[in-house]
Amino acid sequence: MAKSAKSLFSGAGGGCAASGRREWAQIYSIYGSDEWQSVLFLLLQSFLSGAASLLLLLFSGDVLLRSRSLLPSLPPAVLRSSVALLGSSLLLLSVCLLAAAAGLLHSSSALRREVSQRMVASVPDWSSVRTALDVRCGRGLLLSSIARQLKKQGARGRVVGLLPSRAAALSALRRAAADGVHEYVTCREGHARSLPFPDAHFDVVASAASLGDEAGRGLGEMVRVLRPGGVGVVWDLRRRGVPDLAHRLREMRMDEVRVSERLAACLAASHIVSFRKPLSESAATAADWRTNIY
């Protein structure tokens, strides 16, 4: 399998990859930070709460003596109950934070599977698709979903996965091979801000990784490589990302700009934005989206 995946990658002439950090980087939690930072924060808080509970248990006698000196008017029974309640609350908090971290990790995976399916369903007709692009394809979940759809339709098309690193390319290709769709998948190195493809090259362009600070430039590049009449699909998790994307697409005079219903899983919420490139592209329309490329 490893040899097969390696040969696939070599034949593609490039690298499709993303580190786990990049792949999870835009799942926002209630703390407003990136997903991996949120999990780390939750685990740290869980450890601190558990440690505080353990210390309170080990030094409960000293804590009671100190409490009596500070609050001499309170009955000893009330102080003992208060210390016990505090220790129990810290322990419960530690368990809840640990469960929240585990739930966030689990729901992130479930969310990505659901998003991949919905992004594929956003394209109305796959039978005519010959070429598709997955910008920042990560470990290849969306990449394989698109390839499965091409195989299901009996199409002779291919999907290209693009990311700046080669580190996880074999993982993405192994996923495609395990799914039985490796013949529909190729990989290539590149950046969203400067896609290494000619104008009007793809029938479908998708991205399940937030474009972040490259939103304008990345969208302009996605539109550039999309054929007239082609469909673009973007999943965005930034808090103000969806209105910004929809606004930019309308400014670029894209047709059928649609925002999906809210997708939620545990501490994350997101939307899918889809659009169609106009069939007849006037000079004015081209100027509108080319201004987003710089």
Automatic annotation (TrEMBL):
InterPro entries, per the entry: Methyltransf_25, SAM-dependent_MTases_sf
Protein name per Swiss-Prot or TrEMBL: Basic proline-rich protein-like
Residue ranges annotated for the Methyltransferase domain, each copy included: 133-230
Keyword Ion transport: no
Transmembrane segments: 39-59, 79-105
Taxonomy, superkingdom: Eukaryota
Keywords noted in UniProt: Membrane, Transmembrane, Transmembrane helix
Keyword presence, Ubl conjugation: no
Coiled coil: none
